[in-house]
What we know:
The chain has helices at about 10-15, 35-45, 60-75, 85-95, 100, 115-120, 140-155, 160-170, 180-205, 210-220, 225-235, 245-255, 280-290, 305-315, 345-360, 375-390, 405-420, 425-430, 440-450, and strands spanning about 25, 55-60, 85, 110, 205-210, 235-240, 265, 295-300, 300-305, 330. The protein is α/β, with parallel strands linked by helices.
Amino acid sequence: MPTASDGLNREQRAAVTHPGGPLVIVAGAGTGKTRTLTRRFAWLVEQGVAADEVLALTFSSAAAAEMRERLEALIEVPYEELHVGTFHSFCSRLLADEALEAGLDPFFTPVTPADRLALLLDRQGELTLRHHEIRGNPAPLLASFVSRIDRLKDEMVRAERFREYAEEVVERCAGEDDASRAHAARELEFAGVYADHDRLLAEQGALDFGELIARAYSLLHEHPQVRRRVAERFRHVLVDEYQDTNFAQGMLLGLLAEEHRDITVVGDDDQAIYRFRGASRKNLEAFRAEFPEAETVSLERNYRSGQRILDAARAVVEPTERLDKRLKGKQGGEVRFWRCQSERAQAQAVAAEAERLVTGDGVSPDRLAVLVRSVRHEGATVGAALEERALPFRLSGSAAYFQRAEVRDVLAWLRLLADPTDSGAVVRALSRPPIELRSVDVARLTQLARWK
Length: 452
């Protein structure tokens, strides 16, 4: 019979078969960290742990779905449920199950940042915004408020604590120059918006993602009996992408593992997307400090890239303060550097190389990837260069969808229907080729514009 440890290299097998207690898996890019974590889940089940007593936490629903699919193929014994999900989905379910202890309506609604922005726009009249510049459109300002509130909740800074800080700033800046006093006034005003934001959500019976984490932490921290129940329910905790956990999530994990200390985390400071430079080491080092008995296993065998690519990548990150790791891969790989005079020249060089690969070497366009620092600022330039050479492409990123010409055309028509005096929308609608719309489409667009 195949087992969970079959087909693994020595380091992967050591991580998968770790007998118990805290474990840190420092896994470089392409070394099979998710595979290792999934196999550890299956190995624990092989050792007699019930499948529904293992909790696996990931950072996205897609990653959770992929892990669940792999586990369903690996685990043969019957089980009631596989607990694989994001931090937010886990906290949402925990709070619903323990609603009485948490002091919540069990039918609360988790809401996204877009939902919250829409709520603030709808209730804008209840917000005090005398010291912030709206510039005719409140959406960008309120969106920045939502983002800042999320960052504060990630660090477990609640509205009341931020108000205390803002009042201290106002007091400290009372005798300083006008700019300092204006900044202090904006901070105090934001503190009021923060409190209003939480009040409006409470009135709707809703919790944002940061509040889900904070409430779950408070529940486990203030109610030891709940913490023991959760520890008995989840005897093992597995965490993927640990380098990107924020402060609130780290505190929550500490409580989840406090009773049994059977926690496995997988991370790589070089792959951190929320922390930069030396700060990306923080989570892994903090874990070792909180669990000094933790064993560390390093995965350094790369299965994706040639050694030249790995050496080049290491040369790029080497100057930063990082955990030392030397990835080993198969021989080969090609690395070239271009020095360009401008962003447009860079885009043209990229497009020319893509054209050479597609037309000369027969590479399919969907096998090429161009990485840029900002889709909004650099993606459009690269896209235009590719379009000049009739190369098919697709922009990907948080704002890429709204950079597509056809999407911007539709938005212009929506704006025009909502406000015929919108000069920007008029110019785009008139300058773009006409789009044939059925009467039912026009009716729907009109209805949406009126609703907006």
